[in-house]
Amino acid sequence: MNRLVFVIFLSIFIFIIDLYVFQALKVVSANWSPGWKKGVTYAYWGLTALTLFGIFAYNFWGIQLRSLRTIILVTTFINVFSKVFASLFLVIDDLMRVGQWAWQGYQSSGASATTSDNAITRSEFMSKVALAAGAVPIATFSFGIISGAHDYRVHRISVPIKNLPRQFDGIRIGQLSDIHSGSFFNKKAVLGGVEMMLAEKPDVMFFTGDLVNNESSEVNDYIDIFGKLDAPLGVFSILGNHDYGDYKRWDSPAAKSKNLEDLKVAHRELGWDLLLNENRFLEVDGEKVAIIGVENWGSRGFTKYGDLKKAYQGVKNAPAKIFLSHDPSHWDAQIRPEFSDIDLTLSGHTHGFQFGIEIGNFKWSPSQYFYDQWAGLYTNENQHIYVNRGFGFLGYPGRVGIAPEITVLELNRA
Questions:
Q1: Distances from the Cα of 219 to the Cαs of 39, 183, 265, in angstroms?
Q2: Are residues 130 and 168 in the same domain?
Q3: What pLDDT, on a 0 to 100 scale, did the predictor assign at position 113?
């Protein structure tokens, strides 16, 4: 019932917004030929009808094809967002007209009624501005799908580590995160991203969670691609919040449990050492560095499967410690307050919101209003966290301003 109410209210909202923007379209097309006006009108309301149809189909008809679900969600989002954006300019125009009407009423108080020649009509200029503004999100988000989804960028960062053994000075770490294999639509481009990581020749690789969106089967078509990832000291991985299947309705608890077990098998087939609240040691010339990996742990309503105390057992005397935790909120909530000897934490999860601005040292994204650490390297005293912007994407099948990331961290003795 709650879902039905939500869908009805959403549909009413979309219809009202569409009706509002359509008034601007009528003004702009007033002098067009009847054929053009009719064609534009049919196209406009046809898209509205498809959007509303898609919303009901997505919520009530149990669509199984992931690609179709994605098309419905993305089309709805872009259509609604662009018209809401256009409406902002129309609201400005309407407020100006209301102000003008009030002023004319004040000026002519006590006089005869205003003639039709003085009627305040919608501004053609503002209507054109509104429609142009509405086209900007359509163009931007479309470009983000066509160009941004697989526009992989390599981020090379040096990290000073206190007490880092001399044998590990200069070690290169490759990090990938948030693959979300169920969202991919260009297998060749994905392979290109993997080859970019291999070209960096890291000494060890870490994957910090969210291999799939919901179902373990999503990765099946990409085992051969991500299985190419290899490094002299190994490839280690952890689970992210999406890997547990918590966001899907399963036929039974047993089906959900089997899905998770199948995903663990997939990690083994990839040749990755999956850390489930446990640790490993990297060894070079007799010196060791601890690798600690936990299951998902999030402080913002996300599941807390991770057990850091359990994973930490046996590594207290390690001279340097690298910690893998999918959600960066773990750092401030538990790592820094309770485990001050963990030198470097590697996380993902935020995707940088897949939307933002990065120019030189300036970066902005809606992510920063939800996470204190959302992209890049952050340092507090001798502890560091690096948040990977994600290799894949979720929901919106693209990226605008925040490119998919391949991370290469070089550790240096502080």
A1: 43, 10, 11
A2: no
A3: 46
In a domain, 117, yes or no: no
What is the pTM for the complete model shown?
0.82
Opening angle at CA 81, ends 350 and 133, nearest 5: 115
Are residues 128 and 228 both part of a single domain? Answer: no
Within 13 Å of residue 29, how many CA atoms lie on the same side as its CB? 17
In a domain, 115, yes or no: no
CA–CA gap between residue 170 and residue 159 (Å, rounded): 10
In this structure, is residue 262 part of a structural domain?
A: yes
- Give the end-to-end CA distance of the chain in Å, rounded to a whole number: 59
Count the alpha carbons within 13 Å of 23 in the hemisphere toward its beta carbon.
16
Query: What sign results for the dihedral spanned by CA atoms 317, 318, 319, 324?
Result: negative
Cα gap 176→292, rounded to integer Å: 16
Residues 190 and 77 in one domain: no
CA–CA separation, 182 vs 278, rounded Å?
27
Alpha-carbon Rg for the chain, nearest whole angstrom, is 27
Region for residue 170 given its phi and psi (left: phi exceeds 0; alpha: psi -120 to 50; beta: otherwise): left
Predicted pLDDT of residue 168:
97
Rounded average pLDDT per 10-residue block, the chain, 414 residues: 79 88 87 89 88 78 61 77 85 78 70 48 75 85 88 97 95 98 93 98 98 96 97 98 93 96 98 98 95 94 92 96 98 95 97 94 94 97 97 92 97 94
- Taking the C-alpha atoms of residue 397 and residue 354, their distance in angstroms, rounded to an integer, is 9
Q: What CATH number is attached to the domain comprising 371?
A: 3.60.21.10
Task: Clarify whether residues 311 and 343 are in a common domain.
Answer: yes
Residue 71 in any domain: the answer is yes
Other residues' Cβ atoms within 10 Å of the Cβ of residue 137: 20
Nearest one of 203, 410, 241 to 328, comparing CA atoms: 241
Amino acid at 253: P
pLDDT at 236: 98
